[in-house]
Write a structure and sequence with these properties.
It contains 17 helices and six strands. The chain is an alpha/beta fold.
Length: about 325
Amino acid sequence: MKKNLLDLDYIINADNYRNIQDSIADATDMAIITVDYKGKPITHHSKCTNLCKFVRSHPKLSHICEKCDSRGGLEAARLNQPYIYLCHMGIVDFAIPIAVDGQYLGAVMGGQVRVEDASEMESLEKITSQKTDILEYINKNELKELYQSLPVMKLQKVRANAAMIYNICNYIVGEAVLKINLSDGAISKETGYNNYQNKKTSVNTEKLSINTTKKDEHTHGELLNSRENIILKPALDYIEKYYTRNISLNNMASLCNISTSYFSKLFRRTIGDNFSNYINRIRIKKARELLETTDIPITNIALDLGFEDSGYFIKVFKKFEGVTPSKFRNDAL
């Protein structure tokens, strides 16, 4: 297995995933946090209850909470399915394993609820047998009040929510791994690419070809026809349409639902140039057209094409064309 596929934060877009996590927590009325295989959080704690915030603020009790999370995740990985259990506070929690090719990467930890029918709790395992005198650390009345404030639901509903999150996580991680494997050539075009072809994800290479020589156009066309564009297509489409805007690397990575570091690496490998040069190359191509066919002032062309000022535009133009915009215009007359 590739080393990068062992890094959960690498194969998913953490920022986008956090938004999904928040939405699921709101929809299910359950607390959720995602951790890597070491138990280190890669997201914040969505909808964490006041009781759990209170308990985790006490070092000795927080240590037991961490043990519960660790054991819950490992047990879910062993079972390869959602694992619902009771934490040391008697609260219903669950762990959703995240694995790639049988390798445990981390888990989605959720729950922090009370079960409507107390008798149903008898079927749940208490994840830790460590005994703690809770009242030694927490005021009895305050504990009772916080416990009563926990969301209440049927165990069947807890199971349904855990199953839903399990399926969502499998889909998100599976799609991310598929994209990485496709871009690295680890799986064939036939086995993984056809599903995307059915969704009409091919790129219009004629519109996106920006190089100035026949040789460059041919090379660029080959790149645009490659399987990497399954991933990069949303960004390439956006840049083609909005190249005059201020386009950031972070926003384009988010649009493709991959991490910024992976987007940058994949973009350079696929296009053969870095992100900023690619955008500037498109702008300069348009600038050449305007300089050859109009008498629009150079300053206006620079601003219209998204450059901060004419000085930077002139610098970039000379880098690509070997001459200044004014000389290029004069030579074209």
